[in-house]
Amino acid sequence: MTTPPLIEFRKVSKLYGSGEATIRALDRIDLSIRPQEFVAIMGPSGSGKSTAMNIIGCLDVPTDGDYLFQGISTSGFDRTQLTLLRRHMLGFVFQGFNLLPRTSAIENVELPLVYRGIDTKERRSRAADALARVGLAGREHHTAQQLSGGQQQRVAIARAIVTDPAVLLADEPTGNLDTRTSIEIMELITGLNRDRDITVIMVTHENDIAAYARRVLRFVDGRLESDRMNSEVADVS
Amino acid sequence: MFLETVKLALRAISRNLLRSFLTVLGVVIGVAAVIAMVTIGNGTTAQVTADISKLGTNMLFVRPGQFGPRRAATEPKRFTERDVDAIRSQINGLRAVSPVSQSTAVIIYGGQNHSSTVAGVTNDYLIAQNWELASGRSFLASEERGGQTACILGETVRQELFGAARPEGQLIRVGKLSCSVIGVLEKKGQSGMGNDQDDTVLVPLRVYQRRIGGTTDISTIMLSARDGISTAKVQSDVTALLRERRKIGLGREDDFNVNDMTQMAATLTGTTTLLTGLLGAVAAVSLLVGGIGIMNIMLVSVTERTREIGTRLAIGALEGQVLMQFLVEAVTLSIFGGVVGILLGLGLAYTVVSFLGVPFVTSPTIIAVAFFFSAAIGMIFGYFPARRAAQLNPIEALRHE
């Protein structure tokens, strides 16, 4: 008895270029991720992990095969439909934080709600809640430049979860942070996954970061080389 | 959503205030030129209208030839004393009929000389023009018949030749003619057309014809209708009479013109319209350049903010929402230019107008037109960069350094 997959790849391929110069970034990948999982995607650069992440995030579409979200095929979705899926189901956290410059923390967190057309008052309170959840209460009006890297990433996480997404997609979330801050951020993400039932999919190339996940997918040359539960990979504690 | 976007755009502008200003300089200059021009034009028109109403709307000018750009190939026949007599005896409702012939001559008194307009007139001229004497007297009947040579000076001529001295009774030379000063006209100041009305010397018409003009022709007949008499009626009566006297057949055009002051003003405004059109073309070019400036800076802005656009697209901004954001930014920028241009134009107009001594008349219509036109420029020239931003691939945009 298993829960129906939240995310499912059916023979997904992604090709770049044409003719002789064709690069097969993903080669007929089959994959399924269930709700509330915490998955790390690993692999050397050029392995296809970023491409897979982009397709999961609806930022890119497969050349071949089918990507199903909550059992619904996304092939044939146009740009607007993909955007709406992102807007309502997905939250993004990037390596470089990508906060809007010269804009306060709370305004950054409000941004996804602005695009959803939620009124100012509700936006303010939801954004303040999200900031409190990532431990930044009292810093609502600091701009990105006035915050440390770790704090900026917390703002980015608040921005990703303010819409209560089904999936949090994190692309190297600790790539620009020192070890101590990395641990703090990973504990925050783990907590969100555990306490708020958010499915987390994270790209990383560091083993000790991947160790926070319960499942690790390893890509090599566009193929899924391994798919293991973390107890099999290493001892977390 | 819309308000958010406007707030965002205003913040982007104030952050780069100098850059924003330089960007919209073309729009500023174009708008300022139009506003200044129209405001100054309005002022002069108001001044001309005021001058005309001061003169009285009951004035009519009868001149040979056609007024305006259409000129006959041959010099049209001038009027004679007999035409004047015919008007005087056959047209009803006239207060004054004043034949005028004039040319330019050098006026000499003592060691001073001054070039001025010499007009051969009768006393009716003073009645028709509502012109009082500041001192002295008007022509006597004997002087009008050409007996003795007497002349009346305008204020400017008096000032030039006599300064503080009393001019009455003094002999001056007008061209080759010597005459004694019998009076000085009241100061009238500049006319709406910008020439000095006080720079004139009046001599009796007969004297002018014999000693200066050399012919008995009359170049202009000024008519003044009585109060309550319509100038249109006088105009058509005089036209009919002169057509008959000058033997102009049915269907042929007049070889003279009878205009009242409003028609004179219309002709004058006609030249202003031409000038307005010309300067309007200059303004249009400036606005075009301004628009291209806005397009350029918006393209730079889109490139600079590629990552930001990528982030926005990733977290759920629709193409239309990104397009709207950049369009609003471009429009806000060009409206900013428009507003600065309007203020600058009004300031410029105010300076020029107070220098010219004409009233400051603003036109809300042209200000509104300038405002919406500058907004339209932002819309038109901002569309291409905004579309480029909206159509960015989010993956590439996020990867952009």
From TrEMBL, chain A:
PROSITE patterns: ABC_TRANSPORTER_1, ABC_TRANSPORTER_2
This protein's record includes keyword Mitochondrion: no
Keywords (A to Z) from UniProt: ATP-binding, Cell inner membrane, Cell membrane, Membrane, Nucleotide-binding, Translocase, Transport
Cited CDD domains: ABC_MJ0796_LolCDE_FtsE (cd03255)
Domain of life: Bacteria
The keyword Membrane appears for this protein: yes
Residue span(s) of domain ABC transporter: 7-236
Cellular component terms per the entry's GO annotation: membrane protein complex; plasma membrane
Molecular function terms from GO: ATP binding; ATP hydrolysis activity; transmembrane transporter activity
Pfam families: ABC_tran
InterPro entries in the record: AAA+_ATPase, ABC_transporter-like_ATP-bd, ABC_transporter-like_CS, ABC_transpr_LolD-like, MacB-like_ATP-bd, P-loop_NTPase
Similarity-based family: Belongs to the ABC transporter superfamily. Macrolide exporter (TC 3.A.1.122) family.
The name this protein goes by in its record: Macrolide ABC transporter ATP-binding protein
From TrEMBL, chain B:
Compartments it resides in: Cell membrane
ABC3 transporter permease C-terminal domain residues: 281-394
Sorted UniProt keywords: Cell membrane, Membrane, Transmembrane, Transmembrane helix
Membrane-protein topology: Multi-pass membrane protein
Major localization class: membrane
Gene Ontology CC terms, in alphabetical order: plasma membrane
Transmembrane segment boundaries: 21-40, 278-302, 323-353, 365-384
InterPro entries according to UniProt: ABC3_permease_C (IPR003838), MacB_PCD (IPR025857), Macrolide_Exporter_MacB (IPR050250)
Domain MacB-like periplasmic core as annotated: residue spans: 20-240
Family indicated by similarity: Belongs to the ABC-4 integral membrane protein family.
PANTHER family: ABC TRANSPORTER PERMEASE YTRF (PTHR30572:SF4), MEMBRANE COMPONENT OF TRANSPORTER-RELATED (PTHR30572)
UniProt-recorded name of the protein: Multidrug ABC transporter substrate-binding protein
The species this protein was found in: Metarhizobium album
